[in-house]
Amino acid sequence: MLDAEGRHVARVDLLYRRWKIAIEYDGDLHRTDRATWQGDIRKRRLLRALGWIVIVVVKADHDRPGPFLDDLRTAIRTRSTPAYELWA
């Protein structure tokens, strides 16, 4: 992922560039490896500062995807408004 000046900022698991939505998967490594966990917190803070919506997904979302899908729909709806199109 690049910033407005074309510099590499971060790598995310899935993104919707059109709506500036990034989806990140937090597996068990985030629970067991402090550096991974802290690095992702910093990355997500930076992405949000650059105007991205960051949605975090965990294993339980695979079995019950409803809340994740609700968050994704809300984010897309938020970014699909005429006001956002003018701002972006």
TrEMBL record:
Protein name: DUF559 domain-containing protein
